[in-house]
Amino acid sequence: MLNLTIFCSGKHDLKPEYTEATENLISRIDIEKYRITYGGGSIGLMGTVRDTFKNRGGTIITSNLEQFVEGGGDDYVFDNISDRQSKLIELGDLMLVLTGGFGTMYECLESITKNQIREISKKVIIFNFNHIYDHLLAQFLVLQKEGFIKNTLDYYNIVVLTTVNEVVEYLEKFGTS
Q1: Who contacts 113 (Cβ-Cβ below 8 Å, separation ≥6)?
Q2: Closest CA to 148 of 120, 114, 123, 113
Q3: N or C: which end of the chain has fewer CB within 10 A?
Q4: Using an 8 Å Cβ cutoff, are 83 and 48 in contact?
């Protein structure tokens, strides 16, 4: 069984389309092939990931910060974000970046950086739902053009997908070829 580490927002009151897309995606991930590792939150998209996967009988592994622990039950608890992020990346066989803010960007860029310096070799799937990451991806291209990023995104194990179907299809094929 593979560990799919998911990075996403822990904020509530998001536009419904983000919650709906996340629920749609998570409801289609094969619970016989994947366990989900994530930050342990119960609100926002983090809560949607947890509830949707658990309600289907899927296994979830949490790596949480002490300040956000809600009554126990987390698999790993840390008192700083760096250790929490390192554990999430260590546990994952691949990463899935859903919509989110600074924390999600931090997690995404840390995973990419660890690929760049060859500390890991793990796919980082950026789910560019609703074109939320278009500007980030454009910035990557600017950095390539200016010589700060020397290779193409796929060299750093970055996979950009824009629809739920694309992500599901990628996850179905991952590890089988």
Answers
A1: none
A2: 113
A3: C
A4: no
pLDDT tens, residue by residue, 29-71: 999 999 999 988 888 999 999 999 999 999 999 888 888 787 7
- Measured distance CA(76)–CA(117) in Å, rounded: 26
State how far the Cα of 89 lies from the Cα of 17, in Å rounded to an integer: 27
Which residues contact residue 8 at a Cβ distance below 8 angstroms, ignoring those fewer than 6 apart?
22, 38, 44, 45, 46, 49, 97, 98, 99, 100, 104
Helices assigned H by DSSP within 15-129: 16-26, 44-55, 81-91, 102-116
Sequence letter at residue 120? I
**Domain 2-173 = CATH 3.40.50.920:** no
How many residues can be counted in the chain? Answer: 177
The residue ranges of every structural domain in the chain are 2-173
The two tokens of residue 119 are 């500390």
Q: What is the predicted pLDDT for the residue at 64?
A: 84
